[in-house]
Task: inverse folding
């Protein structure tokens, strides 16, 4: 009987773990700060005799802490493994598809490439994922403004962090750029130059509203359209074609 009870408990615990996504470690300071602020405010209000205000503050603070926890969730995703696929680096909406020069700080020249922009609202999962397996040959950060991430000029003017990923087998390059948004003030990137990256793996996040730009070789066949919702690490953006 004891073994059956223990087995059911383990099974239920496993179901809960599958249903509740893990939290990206970059969000832990924010979640911890929100919780600590809630408890400190509650204690202060109760100390001065404002018990009702303390209760209200506690409920609002716990709600804010829960919202922060959901914001930094990092759900498990299953990434297609077919060679040559480029997957979406983030959850969101395809807001722009156009040609543009890659970020100047990467030193790739001014020749236009195909750019797919994904806009994230505060309700979307905000961890970013590697779009293509390969070697990270460059990482470049550039400070900038904090315009609304859905504006065209956000790609050029806003704070950003770019990765250049090369697939030695296909001989192709993909650039993925994290762009801070209107209320975003912190870009987190966990990979370094020389790292071997695998498509679909999480590599960073942007705190509170953002945009991801993916630069592809000109002529790359796309699998998405403007207005389409993407799932980071799962939605296929394009099929890479080896250069002639």
Result:
């Amino acid at each position: 009987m004891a073994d059956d009870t223990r087995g059911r408990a383990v099974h239920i615990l496993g179901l809960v773990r599958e249903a509740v996504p893990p939290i990206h470690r970059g969000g832990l300071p924010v979640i911890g700060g929100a919780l600590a602020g809630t408890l400190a405010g509650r204690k202060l209000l109760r100390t001065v005799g404002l018990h009702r205000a303390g209760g209200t503050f506690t409920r609002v603070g716990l709600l804010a802490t829960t919202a922060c926890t959901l914001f930094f969730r990092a759900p498990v995703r299953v990434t297609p493994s077919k060679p040559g696929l480029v997957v979406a680096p983030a959850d969101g909406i395809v807001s722009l598809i156009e040609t543009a020069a890659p970020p100047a700080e990467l030193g790739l020249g001014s020749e236009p490439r195909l750019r797919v922009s994904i806009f994230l609202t505060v309700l979307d999962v905000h961890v970013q994922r590697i779009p293509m397996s390969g070697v990270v040959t460059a990482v470049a950060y550039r400070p900038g403004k904090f315009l609304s991430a859905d504006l065209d000029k956000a790609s050029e003017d806003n704070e950003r962090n770019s990765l250049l990923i090369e697939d030695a087998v296909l001989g192709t390059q993909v650039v993925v750029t994290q762009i801070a948004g209107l209320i975003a003030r912190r870009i987190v990137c966990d990979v370094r130059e020389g790292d071997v990256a695998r498509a679909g793996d999480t590599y960073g996040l942007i705190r509170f509203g953002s945009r991801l730009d993916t630069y592809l070789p000109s002529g790359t066949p796309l699998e998405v359209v403007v207005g389409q919702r993407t799932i980071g690490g799962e939605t296929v953006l394009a099929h890479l074609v080896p250069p002639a």
Remarks:
- The mean pLDDT is 83.
- The CA atoms of residues 4 and 10 lie 10 Å apart.
